[in-house]
Amino acid sequence: EQFNITSYDATALAIMTLEAFAGMWINAFIVSVICMSWVQKKTLNSNEKILLVVVCSRFWFLCISWLYSFLSITYPHFLYVHPRLQLVVSIESLLDYSNIWFSASLCVFYCTKIANFRNSFFIYLKVKIDRMVLWLLLGSVLFSLVIGIVAYEIADQVHCNNSNSTGRGSFWKANIKMDKHFFPSFFITGFGYAISFMAVTFSALLLLFSLWKHKCNMQTNSMKDISVDAHIKAMKSVLSFLIMYSINFICLILKMVYVTKKGTPVMFLIVVFQYAFPGVHSLFLIFGNPKLEKTLLRILSCVKFKVCMR
C-alpha cells in the first residue's frame, strides 16, 4: 500500500536524492581513477588504498541510505510489515561508521608520514605505518561491525515500539518511544564517534606543530625545506576534513538526541548535511590530489568543449 506523500516528505526526498546522486558520482569518479592507476601500475601505495576504501564506503552508504529513505517515505508501512528490512539500517550504520573511521585513518596516515618529530615511538610509526595500514583498516571494519550490530538492535526496538502504532501517515512523523535500553547503545556509538574525532583533531594539531617547527628551522638556517610544502598540502586536506567532520560530529550527536523527534526542522537539517558530507569532503579530496584534480579538470574541459561545439 502506498501512502500519501506530504510536501515536507517530497522536499526532503528531492534534496536527499540530489545530494545522494551527486555524492555517488563524485565518489565513483575517484574509484575509477584509482582503479585505472591500479591497472597501469599493478600496485597501490598506502595513501591510495585508504582513499579507495573511503570512497567505496561512501558510495555504498549513499546508495543504501537513499534506498532506505525512499522506501521509508513512500512505503513506511512496508518497512514495519517486513521487520527484516531493518537490517538495512545496520548496514547503513556500518558503512557510515566505516566511512568515518577510514577518513580518520587517512588523517592519521598523513600526520604520521609527513610530520617530523624526534620521538622514538613516532619514528617507529613513520617507518612501520605502510605495513600497519591493512591492520588499521581491519580495526576500523571491526569497530564498524560492532556499531552495525548496535544499530540493528536499536532498529529492532524501534520496530517493536511502533509495530502496533504505525498507520497511515508520514515517515517523518513516526512516534518513537525512547527505551531505557537505547542509552547504552547510544553511549557506545557516541564513544566511537568521539575517539575518531579526537584522532582527527590530534592529527591536525601535530601537523600544525610540526609545520611551525619547520618554519622556525627555515628562519634559523636560512634554507628551504621541501617538506614544508608537503606539510601545507597535508594541513589543507586534514583541516578541510576536520571542519567538515566537526559539523558532522555535532550532527551525529544531535541525531541521537533528536531520534525520538522525527519531522522537526533540526532533524531535517541533520539529514541534509549528512547526505552532503560524503560528497563534499570527497570533492575536497579531489582538489587536494594533483592526479585527481587534473583528471577532473580534463573531463570538465572536454564536456565544456562538446557543449560549445553544439
TrEMBL record:
- What are the protein's UniProt keywords? G-protein coupled receptor, Membrane, Receptor, Sensory transduction, Taste, Transducer, Transmembrane, Transmembrane helix
Recorded GO molecular functions are: bitter taste receptor activity; G protein-coupled receptor activity
A Pfam family of this chain: TAS2R
The record describes its membrane topology as: Multi-pass membrane protein
Q: Which domain of life is it from?
A: Eukaryota
Give the main location.
Answer: membrane
> Mind telling me which GO cellular component terms the entry cites?
membrane
Q: Where in the cell is it found?
A: Membrane
Keyword Membrane (UniProt)? yes
Its transmembrane ranges are: 20-39, 51-74, 94-112, 133-155, 186-209, 238-260, 266-288
CDD domains named among the record's database cross-references: 7tm_TAS2R
Recorded family membership = Belongs to the G-protein coupled receptor T2R family.
Report the protein name in the record: Taste receptor type 2
Which species does this protein come from? Answer: Cephalopterus ornatus (Amazonian umbrellabird)
Q: What is the lineage of its organism?
A: Eukaryota, Metazoa, Chordata, Craniata, Vertebrata
